[in-house]
Amino acid sequence: MSDTAILNGVTFVYLLSFLLYLVRMVRGKEFWGSAASRVARIGFLLHSAALLLRWKSSYDLGIGHAPLANFYESLSFFAWAVLLLYLIIEWRTRSRSLGVFVIPVAFLLLAFASISPGVNDRIQPLIPALQSNWLTVHVLTCFLGYASFAMAFALGIMYLLKGRARDGGTEEGTFSRLIPASAAVEELLYQSVVLGFVLLTLGIMTGSVWAHYAWGSYWRWDPKENSALITWIVYAVMLHARSVQGWRGRRMAWMSLVGFASVLFTYLGVNYLDSLHSYF
Q: Whole-model pTM?
């Protein structure tokens, strides 16, 4: 079985996991949550196997590079990183509430990779500028950072929905009871943003070194570079506002949504601009 066939199957595994998490949220039965977690872990293992198989296949073709080079591979790795961080959070917090908000992100990324006509799933050789170990380091740090921001985005939605349920007088309802306390959600949101900010900073730094190695300049004011810098500033402002201005609660939740919108533009929107980093 090919790696693309496995990844196509994993897309539906993640969809099933999301539906099970959703049933848990509606019915309030941990049986469904336990089943959802098992399905998510199975999907993650299959996803990991597909990426490793694609890596091996690239060497069999005489190309030999990590599966991080084109749009299809980046979408797949982004989804994998989201699952990795989610499963770590689920294991650490012993709470499955975040699954219903996070798993759809991974599902949509893989679904887009599978059905979008602009996504080429073939293994392709790297252009000379990309034939560097800096590619792996740069992409790993950036996408793990993006995945951390996806966690913060999901936690922001969770926090806002929790607050809305409380304001509506349904604090003891099933939905609200299954979500951790607002303070715990906000703290996890903050930790996710800090991790993502550190990783994105490393991604920008390694990208600058790689750009100097490939093109002789650390910064070329390329649309992707500019957008990444704007995203970095958004999260820097968010962290500064929390530590200096004392921002908490809804403000942090809304900022996490704004920040992730910037992440999506950096990753997807820049493809439609004239950029050295465009996948199209």
A: 0.91
